[in-house]
Amino acid sequence: MTRNTVEKTSVTLLGLGAMGTALARAWLAAGHPLTVWNRTPARAAAVAAEGARVADSAAAAVAANPLVVVCLLDDASVGEALAGTDLAGRDLVNLTTCTPAQARARAEWARARGAGYLDGGIMAVPPMVGVPQAGGYVFYSGSREVFERHRETLAVPVGTTYVGQDAGFAALHDVALLSAMYGMFAGAAHAFALIRKEDIDPTSFAPLLADWLVAMAPAVHRTADRLRSGDYTEGVVSDLAMQVAGTPTFLSTAEQQGVSPELLGPYFALMRRRLAGGGGDEDLTGLIDLLVR
Ligand code: NDP
């Protein structure tokens, strides 16, 4: 067989929102036969023009191919769209953002209907889809068999990272990374607020801030090592006692600049609580244990 005659896996895709449309285009561009369905039919016109077959119902779309990918608004819309479809013998890949508990329940739901189930958390925005150098990927969890069976097809729009048989792990990884992102954005917001009223050009400040965040990011590896070893004190260079002693400087500076401490305050409160509990010679890893209830 020559390269051109290798059959590409046929895909059914439910959901042609911004993300679904980007996924559809990537599969079509790579030569995968694609059947699509969208609740609002008009949204299918663009991908139909690029070669997608448009099913007139979700049930017909599901019946068209063994691999069924859904990318809808939320878990409730997945339940609604798939109600009345026959999933027996299908491999259901759910790229809809949901909680770990919703993903686990959806995996059970699919199993009860005779379908294999793989959950996905998309770490990309639509313009990154179909652009390998953009670095987007999807966390997958659930059936390893389903993942292995469709690995190459799933890797067409964005990269794939399988994180375990527990169907909830993809959503958990997704939310964990995005939560860290919001923490970073919170820190950046506070930093910009500090300089906001001064004669400092934010566009000159931004590269300094970005470089600093990048320089600090590898600290997560030391945190992980300490969580694994259980020793939060070995090799610590900036201990908690010293860092807590520095917090009045940060709070006074915020006050002097007329900036609310509402983003930094809760983190400093955790630091003080850990110090009061005897963690003065640790780094900041012990704060994680205070968060876990
Ligand atoms: P859009 O809002 O653009 O599209 C939502 C899709 O869900 C549409 O196809 C809509 O159909 C459909 N839908 C909504 N409710 C129902 C329902 N009750 N029954 C059937 N279909 C329904 O969202 P996106 O495409 O951007 O996002 C899709 C998923 O991808 C979400 O879970 C999102 O969190 C995730 N995601 C999106 C990213 C992004 O940047 N866009 C990034 C990472 C993940 P209709 O056209 O009829 O309204």
Gyration radius, in Å: 24 Å
Give the integer mean of the pLDDT values: 97
Structural class assignment: alpha/beta
Q: Give the topology string: H per helix, E per strand.
A: EHEHEHEHEHEEHEHHHHHH
The total of helices stands at: 12
Task: Write up this protein.
- By secondary structure, the protein is an alpha/beta fold.
- It has 2 domains: 3-165, Rossmann fold, CATH 3.40.50.720; 173-291, N-(1-d-carboxylethyl)-l-norvaline Dehydrogenase, domain 2.
- Helix content is 49%, strand content 12%.
- The chain contains 12 helices and 8 strands.
- The chain has an 8-stranded mixed sheet, with helices on both faces.
- Helix 7 packs across helix 8 and helix 10 (240-256) packs antiparallel against helix 11 (265-276).
- The longest helix has 27 residues, at 169-195.
- The chain is elongated and about 65 Å long.
- The termini are far apart.
- 33% of the residues are buried.
- The mean pLDDT is 97.
- Bound molecules: NADPH dihydro-nicotinamide-adenine-dinucleotide phosphate.
- The site of NADPH dihydro-nicotinamide-adenine-dinucleotide phosphate has 21 residues, from helix 1 and helix 4.
